[in-house]
Amino acid sequence: MTQSKLIRRTLTDFFRDLLQGAMRTHQVESSEDSEFYLVKLLERFAHPNPDWNSRPLAIEYLESFHSPTVHRYAKLRHVGDTSLFLSGIFMDNLERQIVPTSYYISLGQLAYQQLAGLGGAATGSTGSLFAEMAERFVDFVRVLTEISFEQLFHGDAQTVRVYTRWLRTRSKQDAEWLLRRGMIPVDPGSRSRH
Questions:
Q1: What residues are paired with 186 via a beta bridge?
Q2: Distance (Å, rounded) from C-alpha 145 to C-alpha 151?
Q3: What does the longest C-alpha to C-alpha distance in the chain come to?
Q4: Do both 130 and 164 map to the same domain?
Q5: pLDDT digits (tens, 9 = 90+) for 79-113
Q6: What is the CA radius of gyration of the chain?
Q7: Tell me: the pLDDT tens digits for 127-137?
C-alpha cells in the first residue's frame, strides 16, 4: 500500500470522533472545555500508568482532605477521572462486581465538586470545568458507555449482557441501546414492553 492511501489520524482525532458521535447519539451537549477534557481523559487511559488503579478510590478521596492543595487537586482529579472512566467504559464489568456503578458515579461527582470548589491559581483552574464535570457526570457516563458498547467491546455477547442487565435494572439507557440494535426489550415473565 502506498503512503498516499494511508489515513493518518492522531489518537486525539480518533477519540474526538468517537466522543462527538456518542454525544450526538445521546443528544448530550457540553462546553468545548469539557469535550476536550473527555478526549484527553480517553487518551490518558489509552496509555495508563501501571499503578493507575492500585489503591481504593475512596482512600484517595479521603486522603485528599489532609493533603496540601496541589496534592489534593491531583488526588481529587484522579478519583474523578478514574470513576468516570470505570463507570463509563467498564460499566458492564462493574455491574458484575460487588461495588455497583452508582458508587463510582457518586464518588466521581463528589471529587469533581470538590475540584470545582478549589479553583483559583493554586490549581490552574477556574473551577467551571469541574463544576460541569460534576453536574453532567451521568451524561458523560452515558456517552462513554456508548463508546464502550459501540466501538470498544461490541458483539453478540455484549448484547446478551445488556439485555440481561436491562431485565434486572430496567435501565432506560440499556433499553435505548437495545432498541437501536433492533431489539425490543421484553420481560419474558410479562407481556409488557419497556
A1: 193
A2: 10
A3: 59
A4: no
A5: 999 999 988 887 666 566 677 788 899 999 999 99
A6: 18
A7: 899 999 999 99
Counting every residue written for the chain, the total comes to 194
Give Cα 175 to chain centroid, integer Å.
Answer: 19
Residues 130, 131, 136, 137, Cα dihedral to 10°: 50
Residue 3 domain flag: no
CB 94 within 8 A of CB 79: no
Residues 6+ apart with CB under 8 A from 53: 82, 86
According to DSSP, residue 150 is labeled I
Residues near 28 by beta carbon (within 8 Å), at least 6 away in sequence: 22, 136, 139, 140, 142, 143
Cell for 126?
477556574
**Residue bearing cell 499503578:** 51
Residue 188 lies in a domain: yes
Query: Residue 174 sits in which domain range?
Result: 155-194
45, 83 in Cβ contact below 8 A? no
Does residue 2 lie within any of the structural domains? no
